[in-house]
Structures are given as C-alpha cells and as structure tokens.
C-alpha cells in the first residue's frame, strides 16, 4: 500500500512538473531578473566555481545555502544556462504543488486538493516565482510538506522538513516557532477547553480523521514533544555560526541587516507594512475574488451529503469542514507570517508570503465546496481572475516579479543592454542597479562583453541632477523604470509620501526629461505596458557611431 502511494505521488510530481514546463515554456530562456542577478545567481555560481558556501562575487547576506547548492549541482550536471536554472526551479515548484495536494487531501479531500493546486498554480505571485531563482518558493515547499507531516502527527518528518526549510531561507524558522508557541498556549486550561469545545461543534455527523491535530495537552502533546520543534532550528543556528567564523557577521553584512531589520522598527512603518501584508494576502492580484466567494459561502448552510464513518456505516449528514484544530493551526501560521513580515524585510514583497498563500487557498476552496452547490464554477471564475491578473497590469502599484510583467522587464533590458554594447562598447555608461550588473557581468545573459559603468542609486530628480554635475565621467546614460507605475484607480498622495518615507518609493524621470538635465539626446527608447527603458547619448553624432 505504501509503495502504491509513493508511485502515485511520483506520478503527480512528474505531471505537475511537465505542466509547469509547458506553461512556462516562453519564459525558460530569459536571463536573470532583479534579485536573481543581484544575489542568488552570483552566490550559487560561486558555489559552482569555488565550492565556497560564502559568496565571493557579491556581499554575503547570510542566506542559508541549500537552494543555492541545489542550483550549483544542477549547473554542474546539466550546464550553466538560464534554461537549466528555470527547469530546476520548476522542479521545486512541482514539489511544492505536490505538498499542497497532500496537505489539502489530508485536511479535506481529493476534490479540494485538486482545486487548491489548480488555483495556486495560476495565482500570479506563485506562477511568476515558480521559475525564478529565489529562496522563498523552496522554503514554502518544505514548510508545506512539514505542515502535512505535523498534521498527520508524524513529528520526526515534520521537524526534518522544517529544518530543510530553515536551511533554504532563514525566515522559515517562523513556522516551527509559531507551532511551538501555539502548543505552549494550549497549556492554558481555559484556551484548551474552548478549542476542544469548538472542535466538537459543526457537523451533523461528526467526523474524526486520523489527520486531525491533537488538541488535548496530555498525553497527546507532552511538553517535551512540543519543545522538539526547536530541533528544526539547529541546522540554521549552525549555519549562522559558520557564517560568523568566516565573515565576522552573524546575519549578513551590516548594511543588509540594517535595511531588513534596523530601519523597519518605526511604529508608523510597521503599521503601513501590516496594511500592505493584509492587502497582499487577501486582496492582491484578484485574491479578493476568492475571499469574496469564501465569505459568500459562509452565509449559506452546509450542503447535505452521505458520509461514511469510521465503522464504514453510511449516514446522512453534511459535507465536512476542515477540522477546527487544523484550521487553528492554519490561522496561527498565517498570523505569524503577517506579523513577522510587517517588521522584517526592508522591501515589502509579496513572495515572502508564499508559505501561507496555499493555506488561504485551501481554506477558501474547502469552504466553497462545503457550502456552494456549484462550487467548481465559482472556483473556475476565481482561476480565470488569477489568469487575468497574471497577464495584465492591475490598476494599482505592484512589483513586476508578481506577474508576467517581469518578462517585459527582462526583454526591455535585453534590448537596451545590447544596444549600448553594440553602439557604445568603449563608453562609460551611467545607470543604476540592476542594469549595472547586467552590463558588467556577461554571465547574467545580457551582454557578451563587460561595459564600463558609473552607478547611481535611481533615476529620481535628485539623483539625475547629481549625475549632471559629473557628466564628464560618462558618455552614455541607460535609464529604466525601477518602479511599476500603472494607471491608478486611486492616487493618494499621503500614501505616496508614506511609501517614500519608509519603503524607498520615488518617481523616475522619463528619458526625455533626463536628457534635458544631462545635456544629451535620447537615441533609444522602448516601452512595454507601464515599463520603459531609454538610452541617452552625451556624445556627438559622429562619435556615437549609430547604425
């Protein structure tokens, strides 16, 4: 029986990977994007070339090395190309989807599992991150597998999966810590009684699953067994100790630590980040439609169904819900991530919430199936809304990495970088990160030979004016949109000022305006949606050698 289950899981894994490869096929050869080019690919490439777990071609951020070593191994076997990188990451995505399927089937049923996997695979943030070489997807995969083992009361595998998650990304330690705190809170007799009383309410025919999380504190979850969850943090602690012995810093370079924690503790900034986190989780990229369908379902009574109990007796009852103890575990993890990532992280990125998007989707799909007569139709509408958000620009500010806008960004930069390399190969180029890395590191996939650069922070008025004062140090300027600026339904100036104060928001000068300040002329400009690139020449027409 176990062999049959293993073969079934392998088949599902292969099917998920093949489907992901086919869906991502036009994207698989794109060069590296933003944080990929800035840290993860250089760090993994250092492991490939030198075997060093501490990056040498970029400043170490103390991120654990498991996913980076996995990419280095893939390159060692199949070659260093974006295609290998993307396919390797899609394997991680397929592993994550299989974990979601197993988790949803354990806490609900196969129908909910299939619906949850379909919705998650099409959700724009997940789809875009599936082929990008970021750590968040790998951490989410191990967390979800660990959670499935935890709910199945297999504590040793759960600890092992959580430990792997921590070695993939340090913030994954939130999951076992949140579960530990929850179990310790259940030591309180009153809270334990409330939870057990609520778990006994609901279904006309009570269903007891072997997968239900045990609530009684004694003897089901003894104190020492709860503390065993801390074992999953030991590999991460050893990594930090190793990092300290090699670099003198525990949590990465001081600038990285300051940006991601030291500068994030202002109360106003925390509240603003909390609002963004709630928006990212419950409204962003048409997630609001799933939440609306779930709330609609909650107004309706459960649908009737014939249910087989543990004695194989069939009785009339209602469609079962996810058990209250299991739901509470989901809510604890969701709350922990929302609160933690309202404080941690200088950039408030939606991908940080990848471990809990599946939990929201599983809860929503289960609720719809339990209460809506035509729930597959509602789910199909939600999936269609996710697909629309994936392919189009929403009427609010968003990160290009959260839908297919990232592919527009890459293609724009490919065109601009190649134009500069072809027409100005011996010039010094004024630009900002990440184009500065794209032009100086041919192995990122944008240019064949390095180009000299002079780097500025961004293309705000202040930065461009400061560059105008040293115009003799460069001959060309490569500008691009560093922020997604779609047409907004609402444009609140107070929110823009808040973002500028705490989240580094700024408005980029367009190429024509920048050319006037720099005393040059625009010789190349392209646009895709709200994104753009432009090249400004400060040389004479004869010296520019344009063709």
Task: Please characterize this protein's 3D structure.
The strands form two sheets. This protein has a five-stranded mixed sheet with strand order 4-3-5-7-6, sandwiched between helices. It has a two-stranded antiparallel sheet with strand order 1-2. The chain is an alpha/beta fold and 547 residues long. Helix 4 packs antiparallel against helix 5 (110-122), helix 15 packs antiparallel against helix 18 (375-391) and helix 17 (357-371) runs antiparallel to helix 18 (375-391). It is built from 24 helices and seven strands. It has helices spanning 2-24, 35-50, 66-78, 82-107, 110-122, 124-129, 135-151, 155-168, 174-185, 189-199, 223-227, 234-247, 254-262, 267-282, 287-298, 324-340, 357-371, 375-391, 405-423, 435-440, 461-468, 493-502, 511-518, 541-544, and strands at residues 304-308, 314-318, 429-432, 453-456, 476-480, 521-528, 531-537. The protein has two domains: 2-195 and 213-401, no CATH class; 404-544, Rossmann fold (3-Layer(aba) Sandwich), CATH 3.40.50.
Number of domain modules:
2
Cα-atom Rg, whole angstroms?
25 Å
Mean pLDDT rating: 89
Q: How is the main sheet built?
A: 5 strands, mixed
Distance between the termini: 69 Å
Task: Report the principal-axis shape.
Answer: globular
> If strands are numbered along the chain, what order do they take across the biggest sheet?
4-3-5-7-6
Topology:
Blueprint: H1 2-24, H2 35-50, H3 66-78, H4 82-107, H5 110-122, H6 124-129, H7 135-151, H8 155-168, H9 174-185, H10 189-199, H11 223-227, H12 234-247, H13 254-262, H14 267-282, H15 287-298, E1 304-308, E2 314-318, H16 324-340, H17 357-371, H18 375-391, H19 405-423, E3 429-432, H20 435-440, E4 453-456, H21 461-468, E5 476-480, H22 493-502, H23 511-518, E6 521-528, E7 531-537, H24 541-544
Parallel strand pairs: 3-4, 3-5
Antiparallel strand pairs: 1-2, 5-7, 6-7
């Amino acid at each position: 029986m176990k062999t049959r289950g293993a073969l079934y899981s392998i088949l599902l894994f292969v099917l998920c990977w093949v489907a992901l490869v086919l869906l991502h096929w036009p994207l698989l050869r794109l060069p590296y994007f933003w944080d990929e080019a800035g840290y993860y690919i250089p760090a993994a490439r250092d492991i490939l070339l030198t075997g060093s777990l501490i990056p040498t071609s970029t400043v170490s951020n103390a991120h654990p090395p498991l996913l980076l070593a996995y990419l280095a191994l893939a390159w060692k076997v199949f070659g260093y190309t974006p295609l290998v990188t993307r396919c390797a990451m899609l394997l991680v995505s397929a592993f994550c989807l299989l974990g979601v399927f197993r988790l949803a089937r354990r806490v609900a049923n196969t129908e909910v599992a299939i619906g949850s996997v379909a919705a998650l695979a099409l959700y724009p943030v997940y789809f875009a991150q599936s082929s990008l070489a970021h750590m968040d997807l790998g951490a989410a995969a191990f967390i979800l597998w660990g959670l499935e083992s935890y709910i199945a009361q297999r504590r040793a595998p759960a600890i092992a999966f959580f430990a792997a998650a921590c070695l993939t990304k340090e913030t994954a330690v939130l999951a076992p810590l949140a579960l530990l705190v929850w179990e310790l809170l259940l030591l309180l007799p009153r809270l334990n009684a409330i939870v057990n009383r609520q778990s006994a309410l609901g279904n006309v025919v009570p269903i007891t699953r072997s997968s239900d999380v045990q609530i009684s504190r004694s003897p089901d979850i003894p104190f020492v067994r709860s503390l065993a969850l801390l074992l999953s943090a030991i590999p991460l602690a050893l990594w930090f100790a190793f990092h300290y012995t090699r670099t003198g810093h525990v949590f990465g370079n001081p600038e990285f630590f300051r940006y991601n924690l030291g500068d994030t503790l202002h109360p106003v900034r925390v509240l603003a980040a909390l609002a963004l986190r709630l928006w990212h989780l419950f409204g962003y990229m048409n997630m609001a439609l799933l939440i609306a369908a779930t709330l609609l379902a909650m107004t309706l009574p459960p649908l009737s169904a014939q249910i087989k109990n543990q004695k194989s007796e069939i009785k009339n009852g209602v469609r079962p819900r996810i058990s209250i103890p299991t739901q509470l575990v989901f809510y604890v993890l969701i709350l922990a991530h929302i609160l933690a990532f309202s404080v941690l992280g200088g950039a408030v990125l939606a991908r940080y919430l990848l471990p809990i998007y599946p939990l929201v989707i599983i809860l929503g799909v289960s609720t719809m199936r339990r209460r809506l007569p035509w729930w597959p139709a509602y789910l199909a509408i939600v999936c269609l809304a996710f697909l629309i958000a994936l392919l189009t620009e929403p009427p609010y500010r968003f990160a290009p990495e959260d839908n297919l806008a990232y592919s527009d960004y890459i293609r724009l930069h490919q065109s601009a970088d190649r134009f500069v390399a072809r027409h100005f190969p011996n010039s010094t180029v004024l630009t900002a990160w990440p184009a500065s890395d794209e032009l100086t590191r041919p192995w990122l996939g944008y240019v064949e030979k390095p180009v000299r650069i002079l780097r500025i922070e961004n293309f705000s008025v202040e930065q461009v004016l400061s560059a105008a004062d040293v115009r003799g140090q460069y001959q060309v300027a490569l500008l691009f949109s560093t922020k997604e600026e779609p047409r907004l339904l609402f444009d609140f100036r107070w929110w823009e000022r808040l973002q500028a104060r705490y989240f580094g928001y700024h408005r980029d000068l367009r190429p024509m305006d920048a050319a006037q300040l720099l005393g040059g002329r625009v010789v190349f400009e392209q646009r895709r949606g709200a994104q753009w690139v432009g090249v400004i020449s400060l040389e004479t027409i004869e010296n520019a050698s344009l063709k």
